[in-house]
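Request: Give me one sample?
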Amino acid sequence: MSRPKVDASDVDTLTDAVLTASRLLVAVSARSLAAVEETITLPQFRMLVILDSRGAMKLTALAELLDVNPSTATRMVDRLVATEMVARQTNPAARREVVVELTAEGRRVVRGVTRRRRTAIGRIVAKMPEHERRGLVDALTAFTEAGGEPAVAAADLGWI
């Protein structure tokens, strides 16, 4: 199937393509989350991924990374503490601050969901013609860098 070439300066067309791809990726993520024993939402999973990739952090910093109000982040943490996926404790350096960290259960969930997502995305990529795949890594790397998302490190591949 042949598609017309897109002008790289046509931001609207490129934005539409990314939105369409993101719908697919959200659907893959939702299906991957459906296998988790405890019901968690995509935003809650995003919190787990942030904690997994960046380590323990203050609740306010976590809220900022999630682009939510601290009260929303607190409710999310409450739910994840109840499922034993995160732990909350006072910051030893500043007793008024709360630090949130991923537990072994949270790490298990992140790895399981990521493994399922990786398998599903791999099937989709494998269906693409090889010549269409060539620029995908460069384009997606540039896109995630522009959005400030940390890359999956090669060391992380051992748990996928």
Q: What stands out?
A: The mean pLDDT is 87. The CA atoms of residues 85 and 106 lie 4 Å apart. The two ends are 33 Å apart (CA to CA).
